[in-house]
């Protein structure tokens, strides 16, 4: 295919094979002959352009065009002229190509035959019928034209009907002889000029051209690679595409070289076997030669020519055999150069594609990079930045899709230092790119063994059986030294290009990470979430909340967590930095659960505490409502405990209402944070609100009823207390009125009767104490009403105790007298010692009774009614005892 901007290329012209490489043809658009410039700036350059256009418009023949190109050189305004053959005369139609006329390009579009395109270097013949093109150097065409016109003017027979045939034969003979002479001259120095090696070298050139086209790495434009995808694709490309193509090319080259070496070796062996050394120099007779070789009778000149041809073939075969090591070294060098070109082109193409994928750099002259954790975080050197900038400028604007990053890199929170890190890191990506682009290209290029070390070609590496002549050997040595020097220079140049491309890829990746560190600074604000999660002691906070809910602190924490949650929701998930597509999804996935967990912990604890306390308060206050609604009317049915419980509820009502308000505020905080409450907690809060609204009124009604009922109970208890007091007073009056009892009764009867009265008085006192306690429980204002009952019981108890003391003296004195009298009567019958002991005990008892009697009759102890007869009875008993003693 012709290059863009031109109509043809040298490689597309199969009929022309130049001996020397022509200079590059500058592509330019096909211009028609411009019209005269009638205006414009009157500068030197404008005047020169105007003069060139005027001369181009005046070109009519090929000689005019040649003069135009020589006059203006590189500043020509028209680079191509179109021409048609002028065949006005019949005899000139055979050589019409030497009579060309410059025409407008539009006329060539309607030509059915041939037309010509003339430039400063060559003349191109284009045949529209066959589609073939033929390029002739302009100087050579002018020489042929001059020779044609010279022959036409000097030779009279040249104008005959065989004009075209004669001239074409003459030109063909001239070209053939010139080509033969050039080939014979080059055959000693160039292997490609040797017919034995032309085929293998051409085949090697084709194979190595295919080898140079192999690429060891594949970078798909517009694709975003992860580290795993990058390594996997490059490995698959090498194993399925690059390496098989390299192996196939090397195998084809080895096969072609082996076939050529075998053919040359076979020809040399055939010549050694068929040609005797004496045939190269002796001058034997014609007949002997004819008889020996079976030749026909021919002239001596023919036989001599045949001998010379056999000797030349013999020497050529041995010379070709001696050139086999040189051939293999040449092929080996070409293979090495092709492999180096393949590796260099692979890295250069990868660098070009990566450069096209990288947007413009974002880094400025400065910028802080604190908190960005990645080794090698310094900025690119100025030389590398200039190199990348110049490479991008040389590449020009891309005609493909818009630049897009090639590598995916995740932003993660660094484990140490609390910064932002990259996953994979810069070192990992650099190692991956180095391994998959540079190292693999180098490894694949250097993995091919040299041709001379292969077993199939190793035997051809030595010198042949016949050595070349001394002069030829010296020439080959000089040429070999020159070839080695040029080969070393070429390989060094390719190695330098390879290293430069590798450095460009590394610099591009380093610049991308420098931009990535600049971009990652905006994600530094999200690391506060990580530090909060690491420093916040949830257990201690929960213990404090269980002791007492801190609504202000909880609201502050929930507000901060909601703000972080909103920031995470608005976090940019993808950012572009050179080759890198920074993915913050992993960072968000790392931080979002921390916020959600902390938010869930706070709201869960508040829900638990608020809901639990709300349920407990609701249960407790519902029981209070039941207690307030019970209202026992009887004291024995629990009026006093109910009253005490009602008073306790009234005292604790404000605290319970405050606790209910705190629970409600906690649940409101949860609802504010989550947007809604769980159904169970919402029901509990509604129930608690209903109870809190109705309980104060119910307690107020119960308190009013309690006051009314307590007044009735106070009156009843006071009446019972008065009855008991009256009974005690009546008992006192009876005891005082009747004295200590009838003196004619026995002591045992009187004591039994007094004990009964004592039991009745004790029961009445107990009841009085209970009533007094009831009065105290019912209220302090009832104490004055119940004070007389206690005094009456004390007075009655005093009188009753006086009676008991007096009758007990009488009973004891009579018992002592009876016992002493019995002892005296028993002693009268003969016992002495027992009577003395009885008298001794009776004397002590009587003395004690006398003391008690004296105490009872003292002035401080008032008498109970008329108790003198009873006291006199006690004295009489003690007097009787004294008589018996």
TrEMBL record:
This is Dynein heavy chain. GO terms for molecular function: dynein intermediate chain binding; dynein light intermediate chain binding. One of its GO terms (cellular component) is dynein complex. Residues 364-399, 461-486 are annotated as: Disordered. InterPro entries: DHC. Coiled coil: none annotated. Residues 390-399, 465-486 have a biased composition (Low complexity). GO terms for biological process: microtubule-based movement. PANTHER family: DYNEIN HEAVY CHAIN (PTHR45703:SF35).
């Amino acid at each position: 295919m012709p290059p863009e901007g031109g109509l043809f290329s040298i490689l597309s012209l199969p009929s022309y094979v130049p001996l020397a490489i022509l200079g590059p043809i500058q592509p330019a658009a096909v211009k028609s002959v411009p019209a005269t410039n009638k205006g414009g700036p009157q500068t030197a350059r404008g005047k020169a352009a105007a003069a060139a256009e005027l001369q181009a418009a005046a070109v009519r023949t090929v000689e005019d065009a040649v003069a135009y190109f020589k006059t203006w050189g590189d500043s020509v305004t028209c680079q191509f002229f179109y021409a048609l053959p002028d065949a006005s005369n019949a005899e000139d139609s055979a050589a019409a190509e030497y009579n060309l006329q410059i025409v407008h390009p539009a006329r060539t579009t309607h030509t059915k035959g041939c037309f010509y395109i003339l430039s400063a270097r060559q003349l191109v013949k284009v045949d529209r019928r066959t589609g073939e093109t033929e390029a002739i150097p302009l100087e050579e065409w002018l020489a042929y034209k001059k020779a044609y016109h010279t022959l036409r003017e000097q030779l009279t027979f040249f104008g005959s009907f065989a004009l075209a045939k004669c001239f074409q034969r003459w030109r063909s003979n001239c070209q053939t002889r010139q080509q033969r002479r050039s080939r014979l001259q080059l055959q000693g120095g160039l292997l490609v000029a040797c017919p034995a090696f032309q085929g293998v070298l051409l085949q090697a050139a084709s194979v190595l051209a295919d080898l140079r086209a192999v690429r060891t790495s594949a970078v798909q434009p517009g694709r975003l690679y992860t580290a795993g995808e990058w390594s996997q694709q490059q490995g698959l490309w090498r194993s399925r595409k690059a390496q098989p193509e390299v192996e196939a090319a090397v195998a084809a080259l080895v096969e072609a070289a082996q076939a050529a070496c075998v053919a040359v070796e076979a020809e040399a062996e055939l010549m050694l076997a068929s040609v005797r050394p004496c045939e190269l120099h002796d001058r034997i007779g014609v007949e002997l030669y004819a008889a020996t070789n079976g030749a026909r009778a021919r002239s001596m000149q023919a036989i001599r020519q045949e001998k010379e041809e056999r000797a030349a073939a013999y020497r050529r075969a041995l010379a070709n055999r001696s050139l086999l090591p040189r051939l293999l070294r040449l092929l080996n060098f070409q293979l090495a150069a092709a492999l180096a070109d393949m590796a260099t082109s692979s890295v250069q193409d990868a660098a070009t594609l990566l450069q096209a994928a990288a947007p413009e750099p974002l880094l400025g002259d400065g910028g802080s990079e604190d908190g960005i954790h990645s080794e090698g975080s310094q900025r690119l050197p100025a030389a590398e930045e200039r190199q990348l900038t110049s490479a991008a400028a040389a590449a020009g604007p891309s005609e493909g899709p818009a630049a897009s990053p090639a590598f995916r890199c995740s932003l993660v929170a660094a484990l140490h230092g609390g910064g932002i890190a990259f996953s994979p890191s810069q070192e990992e990506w650099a190692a991956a790119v180095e391994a998959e682009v540079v190292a693999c290209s180098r490894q694949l290029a250097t993995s091919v063994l040299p041709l001379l070390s292969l077993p199939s070609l190793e035997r051809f590496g030595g010198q042949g059986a016949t050595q070349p002549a001394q002069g030829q050997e010296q020439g080959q040595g000089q040429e070999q030294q020159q070839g080695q020097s040029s080969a070393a220079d070429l390989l060094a140049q390719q190695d330098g290009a390879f290293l430069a491309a590798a450095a460009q890829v590394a610099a591009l990746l380093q610049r991308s990470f420098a931009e990535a560190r600049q971009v990652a600074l905006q994600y530094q604000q999200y690391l506060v979430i990580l530090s909060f999660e690491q420093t916040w002691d949830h257990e201690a906070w929960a213990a404090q909340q269980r002791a007492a809910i801190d609504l202000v602190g909880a609201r502050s924490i929930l507000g901060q967590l909601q703000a972080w949650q909103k920031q995470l929701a608005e976090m940019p998930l993808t950012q572009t930095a050179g080759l890198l597509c920074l993915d913050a999804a992993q960072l968000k996935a790392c931080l979002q659960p921390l916020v959600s967990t902390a938010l869930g912990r706070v709201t869960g604890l508040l829900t638990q505490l608020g809901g639990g306390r709300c349920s407990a308060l609701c249960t407790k206050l519902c029981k209070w409502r039941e207690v307030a609604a019970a209202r026992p009317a009887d004291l024995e049915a629990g009026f006093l405990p109910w009253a005490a419980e009602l008073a306790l509820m009234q005292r604790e009502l404000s605290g319970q209402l405050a606790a209910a308000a705190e629970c409600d505020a906690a649940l409101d905080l949860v609802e504010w944070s989550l947007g809604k409450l769980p159904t169970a907690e919402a029901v509990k809060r509604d129930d608690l609100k209903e109870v809190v609204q109705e309980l104060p009124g119910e307690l107020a009604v119960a308190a009013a009823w309690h006051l009314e009922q307590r007044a009735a109970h106070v009156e009843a208890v006071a009446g019972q207390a008065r009855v008991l007091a009256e009974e005690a007073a009546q008992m006192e009056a009876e005891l005082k009125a009747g004295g200590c009892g009838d003196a004619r009764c026995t002591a045992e009867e009187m004591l039994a009767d007094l004990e009964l009265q004592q039991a009745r008085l004790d029961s009445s006192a107990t009841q009085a104490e209970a009533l007094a306690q009831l009065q105290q429980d019912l209220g302090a204002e009832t104490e004055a009403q119940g004070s007389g009952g206690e005094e009456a019981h004390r007075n009655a108890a005093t009188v009753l105790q006086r009676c008991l003391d007096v009758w007990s003296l009488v009973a004891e004195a009579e018992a002592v007298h009876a016992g002493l009298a019995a002892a005296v009567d028993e002693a009268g019958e003969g016992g002495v010692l027992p009577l003395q002991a009885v008298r001794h005990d009776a004397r002590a008892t009587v003395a004690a009774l006398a003391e008690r009697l004296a105490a009872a009759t003292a002035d401080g102890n008032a008498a109970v009614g008329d108790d003198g007869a009873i006291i006199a009875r006690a004295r009489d008993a003690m007097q009787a005892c004294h008589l018996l003693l």
